[in-house]
Design a protein that fits this description.
alpha/beta; 4-stranded parallel sheet
Length: 106
Amino acid sequence: MLALGDMRELGEYADRMHSGLADAVRSKRARRRFLCGPTCRALWQRLPRRRRERNRTRLGGRRREVGGAVREGDVIAIKGSLGSKMKHVVDGGPGGPAAAKCGSEK
């Protein structure tokens, strides 16, 4: 699974850099792809329609979705700047900590 949030430190290059991840994201055989943030939309738009999940602009709903989708034994790649608060996907919240569900030892 991939959980990607905005990398805000990219500034004026954010849309282009996020969009540039499309080939790498497409080539990975992730069961699910979760995107969160306004600049991740540039990436979302370049993914094939059958591979798109809803792009969220706010983390609250996304945190619950990721937590609810995790199955025992899943491997999750989570990336985003501290400003995008993707650390909350790992730390948990509604739906429980994603890391604990995967059997990770934070």
